[in-house]
Design a protein that fits this description.
Elements lengths: L1 H21 L9 H8 L4 E2 L2 E2 L50 E4 L5 E5 L2 E5 L32 E5 L10 H7 L3 E7 L3 H6 L7 E4 L4 E4 L2 E6 L18 E5 L4 E4 L8 H9 L4 E5 L14 H10 L5 E4 L13 H12 L13 E2 L12
Parallel strand pairs: 5-6, 6-7, 7-8, 12-13, 13-14
Antiparallel strand pairs: 1-2, 3-4, 3-15, 4-5, 9-10, 10-11, 11-12
Helix pairs in contact: 5-6, 6-7
GO cellular component, one term: cytoplasm
Protein name: Metallo-beta-lactamase domain-containing protein
GO molecular function: N-acylphosphatidylethanolamine-specific phospholipase D activity; zinc ion binding
Length: 362
């Protein structure tokens, strides 16, 4: 019996190793020149990227909660398809005079700003995992618009390389529509492994900037981690500031609450609009994801005139109910007099005009 158990374990290890080392979903490794730039980052220490403040991936893991990840009970997923606004190609032909945002669920956002199309963390796949059997499915079966019917994309912004933000299948289907990719240090290797030409990828350390179509894009800090397969923190993570003559927008990426929000607010705020992580949290990993109340405080720290909770509404990646993020955020926003937008998936809205505020999840 012992021999049989050991044989099964060995087979599982072998199959897993083959899968990780041969499947394209896991991406690539940096070339020599790119690796040298990574090593020169002051945020890269002992062969891994680090945060500016102590950040633990686990803040008290409870083994009894492990089984709960594999169940959908306690309202962790919606019982039916969520309300969704569907779009067609012709919609994007009419350009708004002010920035327009369309939420695709989770942290995927399509931003039209001053004549260009920017897609932020375009995870458009069905499962946020390297294999369909390794993750829970998207709440809605369909996207607001198919990838094939999306317009040309001038710029894709990536916050980090976790599967719910950087998706192999989405990049494969999007890459020929995209002029340029802006990514944190180390992620270029993933994209080139997936067929994106190196000259269409620009890597950023924290506080590095680039101007695209007279719009400044700044890679700013986040309190998180990275990793695909067996690797951890070999690529960097970030938030993004998008600042033009007329508009100022912030995207938090994935982040635990930290002092960096006030720093960003003091350096680049106030912001017309901020898209803030609010979901997939738990006290067991409190350093790397914010509780909704912290999300609202972070929007105050960055000096946002209006905020939108993201990182919810598409996938089950934690143990809270699927509506808990937005309900707690709304309660905290009301108590702190924070303006909050709550669009349905696929609902375009213009920054500076009337913001969607319906309680559609009820």
């Amino acid at each position: 019996m012992l021999i049989g158990i050991l044989t099964v374990v060995l087979l599982i290890v072998i199959v897993t190793a083959i899968f990780v080392n041969t499947s394209p979903q896991f991406g690539g490794t940096p070339k020599v020149a790119d690796l040298e730039r990574i090593k020169n980052s002051k945020h890269y220490k002992n062969k891994a990227f680090v945060n500016d403040e102590l950040t633990l991936a686990s803040t008290g893991f409870k083994w009894q909660s492990l089984f709960q990840f594999f169940t959908n009970g306690n309202n962790k997923v919606p019982l039916k398809q969520l309300p969704q606004n569907n779009l067609n190609t012709s919609f994007f032909k009419t350009k708004p005079s002010k920035p327009r945002v369309t939420w695709f669920g989770h942290s995927a956002l399509f931003l039209e700003i001053e004549g260009i199309n920017v897609f932020i963390d375009p995870m458009l796949g069905n499962v946020p995992a390297p294999h369909p059997l390794l993750g829970s499915e998207r709440f809605n079966k369909d996207l607001p618009i198919s990838i094939e019917n999306l317009p040309a994309i001038d710029l894709v912004l990536i916050s980090h390389d976790h599967y719910d933000h950087l998706d192999y299948g989405s990049i494969i289907r999007l890459k020929d529509k995209v002029k340029q990719f802006y990514v944190p240090l180390g992620i270029k290797a993933h994209l080139t492994a997936w067929g994106v030409p190196a000259n269409r990828i620009k890597e950023f350390d924290w506080w590095e900037t680039s101007v695209f179509n007279n719009i400044e894009f700044v890679s700013t800090p986040a309190r998180h981690f990275s990793g695909r397969g067996f690797t951890r923190n070999k690529t960097f993570w970030c938030s993004w500031v998008i600042k033009s003559k007329n508009n100022s927008i912030f995207f938090s990426g994935d982040s635990g609450y930290g002092k960096h929000f006030k720093t960003i607010g003091n350096m680049y705020g106030p912001f017309d609009f901020a898209m803030m992580e609010c979901g997939q949290y738990n006290e067991q990993w409190a350093h790397i994801h914010m509780m909704p109340e912290e999300t609202i405080q972070a929007s105050i720290d960055v000096k946002a005139n209006y905020m939108m909770p993201i990182h919810w509404g598409a996938f089950k990646l934690a143990l809270h109910t699927w509506v808990d993020p937005v309900e707690r955020a709304l309660k905290a926003a009301k108590s702190k007099h924070v303006n909050i937008a709550t669009p349905i998936i696929g609902e375009p809205f213009v920054i500076g005009d009337e913001y969607p505020e319906k309680l559609w999840w009820e």
